[in-house]
Design a protein that fits this description.
six-stranded antiparallel beta sheet; Phosphatase 2c, domain 1; 11 strands; alpha+beta; 27% strand
Length: 248
């Protein structure tokens, strides 16, 4: 397995509300990043509950998913199990009512990539020298970009980027966005929180990835670039490289 992840509290926030995980389950590389929402409403707990639940379900059942066509339904079920864990935790701990989180998950098997996504954590792919955004943000600034009212660059600092309309922890049933891609061996897949991608340009992102052989070094470079870009948020990234699938 070739994967790595790194998280930093950043220079402004008192706590780190981001959580991440990565693990190989059978022939799949599984990655997840969650960015807690709510500050005093325990966003860091919501994000940890989500990532832990996802990874637990993958370990228990992913090996039984034999067909790629079954992954969208499976991932929707996984997201709803994570969501219910958050909702139950709120009921058991009333002081946590209102805690929510974003969640982006990637399953990589050989050159087959499947992503499930809610919120504004993002998935990217680096193919050659091309950085490709693989997910669509669920916030107001993204809606404005889609309507052509603001640019992608303006969206990074638009107040609407903090107004999410789709998260885990608010509703009893979730319908995550599901994306399926055929990629190439050697491509890098990134999951990252907005504290990273909002504080650097695509060119700066790609510059951190020039030495592709050491993905841990890339993680550190991306975190440092976000810090140099005066990130005001928690900063998290996980990276996986597309390689021939192996069974464990």
């Amino acid at each position: 397995m070739t994967a790595c992840g790194l998280s930093d509290k950043g220079p402004v926030r008192e706590t780190n509300e981001d959580n991440f995980g990565y693990e190989q389950v059978g022939g799949y590389l599984c990655m997840a990043v969650a960015d807690g929402v709510g500050g005093e409403a325990c966003g860091e707990i919501a994000s940890k509950l989500a990532v832990d639940a996802v990874m637990e379900v993958f370990k228990d059942s992913l090996a039984f998913v034999k067909e790629r066509d079954a992954l969208p339904s499976y991932l929707t079920t996984v997201f709803n199990k994570a969501n219910m864990r958050i909702l139950r935790n709120c009921l058991e701990n009333r002081e946590r009512l209102g805690m929510c989180t974003t969640l982006t998950v990637a399953l990589l098997k050989g050159t087959q990539l499947t992503i499930a996504h809610i919120g504004d954590t993002r998935a990217y792919m680096l193919h050659g020298n091309e950085l490709i955004k693989l997910t669509e943000d669920h916030n107001e600034s993204a809606r404005l970009v889609k309507k052509g009212l603001i640019t992608e660059s303006e969206a990074k600092h638009h107040p609407g980027r903090n107004r999410l309309f789709k998260v885990l922890g608010e509703n009893q049933y979730l319908n995550p966005d599901i994306y399926s891609y055929n990629i190439s061996y050697g491509d890098l897949v990134f999951l990252c929180s907005d504290g990273l991608y909002s504080f650097m340009s695509d060119e700066q992102f790609k510059a951190c990835c020039r030495e592709r052989g050491d993905i841990r070094s890339i993680c550190y470079k991306l975190i440092n670039q976000a810090l140099e870009g005066n990130s005001t948020d928690n900063i998290t990234v996980t990276i996986g490289r597309a390689e021939p699938a192996t069974e464990l």
